[in-house]
Amino acid sequence: MVRQGLAAVQGKPYSFWDGVAARMVDAQAPGVARQLREMASIPHSGAGWQERVLEKLGRLYLLLEGFKRLDTLPSATQADIRTLIGWTHQDKLLASDPADLVNAHWLILGQRVEEDNLRVQRLWLWGQESNRAALILNFAHVSQPLETSFLPGTIAEAELVFFESAYPLRAILKTRHSGSFQIEGIPGYSAIADMIKAYAQALSCNPWLEQFPVPLVAVIPIHHNELWFVRDLAGHHLPLMPRFERGWQLLALSGGHPLSLFGEWNGDYLLPLSVEVSGQFIVL
């Protein structure tokens, strides 16, 4: 059964999966459509593609089974499933008295923009007082500008409202206070083992978590067998995303010494987005 399923995925052209995804959009399920499009490209992503497809299929199956039993699940898990399918209600979230509103100083640690038919901007924030992460998503047509008021490397005082979730991470801006300051350092995990423990806890709350924010303190870039890693002071390693093209720049910035780094972890690879060296914040 598994072999037949993998053969079906590998054998179908991208146009087939794109057509299925289009039907999901018509069915008001853009989140499912995005997952299908991503799955279509995995068989061409190199060695180990079978495991990656199985992981995606497993999460999609779990999502569909959860949707069938939506009314029996806790409200936070229901909210995660609706969000993954593509049902969001930002206007209602900001109305009257939001349940999860946080007024704090937020460190803007990273930004990533992906482009397809739509430009998607991910802004990663970190609460200076709470050590709580926040993800702000912005969308724009390819011809339209994206959000520019949150600049990586600065600190902003703002009120954020978090979407209901079993692991609240995504938020939207309610109020932005005047003024911003430069980041003096990246706070975070001093050991990779602590980060993996935090990721496992987050995944136990929300098994569909796709990107996990990772601020690391005192890691050293390593190049081995044509692959890039970061190593902490305990000797533990994290592999960097194979398509990450700034490994040599990262190594040059470190000079072989520990640096602080922020990136996205997808369960397999870390994608660095920014570093801090000798008090200087650098966007990668």
**Poorly predicted sequence stretches spanning 5 or more consecutive residues:** 1-7, 14-28
**Helical residue percent band:** 25-40%
Tell me the name of the CATH class of the largest domain. Mainly Beta
Q: What is the count of DSSP helices, taking H or I runs of 4+ residues?
A: 8
Strand content: 25-35%
Oligomer: single chain
- CATH fold naming of the largest domain: OB fold (Dihydrolipoamide Acetyltransferase, E2P)
Silhouette: globular
| Rg (CA only) | 20 Å
Q: Quickly give the CATH architecture of the largest domain.
A: Beta Barrel
Average pLDDT figure: 81
Write down the secondary-structure element order: HHHHHHEEEEEHEEEHEEE
Structural class: alpha+beta
- First-last Cα distance: 43 Å
- Domain count: the total is 3
Biggest β-sheet description: 6 strands, antiparallel
Q: Going across the major beta sheet, what is the strand order?
A: 8-7-6-9-10-11
Strand segment tally: 11
Structure description:
- The structure is a single chain.
- By secondary structure, the chain is of the alpha+beta class.
- It folds into three domains: 2-85, no CATH class; 90-182, Beta Barrel (OB fold (Dihydrolipoamide Acetyltransferase, E2P)); 192-283, OB fold (Dihydrolipoamide Acetyltransferase, E2P), CATH 2.40.50.
- The chain is 33% helix and 34% strand.
- The chain contains eight helices and eleven strands.
- The protein has a six-stranded antiparallel sheet.
- Strand 7 and strand 8 (237-239) form a beta hairpin.
- Helix 2 packs antiparallel against helix 3.
- The radius of gyration is 20 Å and the shape is globular.
